[in-house]
Design brief:
Elements lengths: L1 H5 L8 H12 L1 H33 L6 H17 L6 H28 L17 H20 L6 H24 L23 E3 L6 E3 L3 E4 L5 E4 H6 L1 H13 L3
Antiparallel strand pairs: 1-2, 3-4
Helix pairs in contact: 2-3, 3-4, 5-6, 5-7, 6-7
Amino acid sequence: MFVALTIPTDGALSETSGVLGIVGLMGFVGLLFVWVSQTRINTMNFYLAVTNLEGFVARLSRVRLPRAGWGVLVGVIVFAVMLSNVFDFILVALRYQAVLTVTWTACALAFLLAGRLGDDADPEWRPGRVARFDPVGVGAWSAGSVVGFALLTFLPASSWAGTWALPLAFGVSLLVQVAGMWLRGSRQALLRRPHDPRDEVVDAWSVHVRCHVCERFYVAVEMDRDPSAGHRPICAEHAQDSAAYADAVLEEARATGA
């Protein structure tokens, strides 16, 4: 907002003109500021992209690559996007991405609200304790996203849709999520399994447990036991990335009738 209102720029405000305005205002310090801030932000972006891609592929297949390999793959994808002159369509893409974000947020808020109303201090989210596919959550997310996409696609951005597309998409996802959970009669589709580290400690938020994969300590509330490795403790991150773990927890849930 400061750059847009106080620094003269050539043409409309954009990613490039904003950077040039900062550099023109602050000189070398501005260049250093842009470099440090963008490096910091994009380091986190790359880390999240690598971990999410690794977990997504692990859920769908048994492909295994070292973390560096996933980093190279993400770098190739990002470079290919850059070659496509992303600035021509980035604002349009961000509007659609915003729809996906706010509808997902609506589903998450409904999930947390249901936990509060149900006196559930520790809502279940661990990969081995929830179903791989929750039709209520996916349906609510999809319903709101379809409404938002339709408003942005078929109505001009200058109309009322430019202002109300996101709130309406949020409201649709929230209502569908709440209605779906109420009709289902349960807050979440769970995998009922024994050997829960949360039940083995006095305070799951203060006791730390070591993961047998990365050998790091995490609070017990985000730990599980790995049926594919003798029920040794495993953290949520490595549980999400392990296809063997995913298969083993489903087999254990079936064996216990859950």
